[in-house]
């Protein structure tokens, strides 16, 4: 019973960052909330103007403890180490948040994590129903990873995909035309519309759909003698009519010696194509906040309701002015007070949470959670795949966010809702909390074994009834280490007093209670969620 009381109490305390935090004002204010909202750049200026029209106020900034964890998870998909956290909190530099953002954007893990994001959108999957096959999936993933690592301009990234030709085993971009359920012009047009313009082609009149499809009606496929290799090429067959209509209604002419895809790519990436810019800006905002400017990033029509319209348009201008430098966009957003808000909204605000009056709380993605548990417990997962080489066995050095293909077998990732990559829609990833997830974290043998081994390395003294001052100090050092490792912060004063009372009581099985503490932290909202 005492173990249960300890566990439930810790769950309440460590869950205090959520909206229920009003019941724990001392803890939330000291641990999760920092300075008042202060304008950092033009994002904040436009954000405040928009909130004023809605009679809303932003939340205070998050604390340094919250920020360091948040930015590591949002930029790298990786939990900061205890050394990362301690170093950041000890740094007295007033510009340390900006410096950390710059440092994270340069790290290789940035490409690892964002290649995962783009692989979901671009449907990198070896097996049914996409059927890229292992070599094609790996080549496609490596191309995506390289373009992100090089910070290739977004318009160039898209153009290379649209006009790609060649072997799917040698030119990764050519797999864009293979990563579809059917290789006909209509399906290819639907993939392009959804991925780069946030448009569902199926809702348009049939005549409009045909106007889109004509640009991709001369994509050909040819098999080779190598198993599952396929050549993507422009057939060079002239269109039935040289006159075409672009998606915005403008007219054009395709000459017999011109690839229609080239003309479409020119139109799509033109500096005046507002919808192209709005779609990628909205997608990046969604990935950093968990919500976009519009409700559905894959159904972003001209009449779609948009929050903070002026802010969205200004970010589009920034994107064009920076020559489609996506890292410039990340840097602007991450440095804004809008992004650095606390996840605890103002007590007086009861309006629409979609206005971003606080940082949206959401669960870590399946791959990120798996890597976080691996980092904490030093138990690397073993991945296998039912498809042929090269994915039969994944090297242990691979972190989960680096997996190139969702065909790799993992019951954990399936349970926690990794993307299926069947459609490229954001809904392919299921971030809902399920009973099976809760039962795994609460009762599974794996979690019990991991927490037991983790607790045993600290060698908690369980023999003496009383602990002297040196022992008490050592106990507090251990708890500091655990909090930094799991929650990326030191224990609050409330938590310290509670833990002292629990661990210094005579007759307590401290070793078991210590394992219960670790188990409680792993099951807390504060650990499982981005906040």
Separate helix tally: 23
Q: Classify the secondary structure makeup into a structural class.
A: mainly alpha
Q: In percent, how much strand structure appears in the residues?
A: under 5%
Please give the number of β-strands.
9
Average pLDDT figure: 89
Taking the alpha carbons of the first and last residues, their distance comes to 31 Å
Structural notes for this entry:
The strands form four sheets. A three-stranded antiparallel sheet has the order 1-3-2, with no helix packed on it. Helix content is 49%, strand content 5%. The model is unreliable at 1-28 (pLDDT under 50). By secondary structure, it is mostly helical. It starts with a helix and ends with a strand. Among the domains are: 33-61 and 274-342 and 353-362, no CATH class; 126-268, no CATH class; 439-530, no CATH class. The protein is globular. The longest helix has 19 residues, at 469-487. The protein has 23 helices and nine strands. The protein has helices at residues 2-14, 25-31, 42-53, 64-76, 82-90, 96-106, 108-121, 133-149, 154-162, 185-197, 206-213, 260-268, 274-289, 309-321, 326-335, 366-377, 411-415, 435-443, 445-456, 469-487, 493-503, 510-522, 525-528, and strands at residues 166-167, 219-223, 230-234, 243-245, 251-253, 362-363, 384-385, 408-409, 529-530.
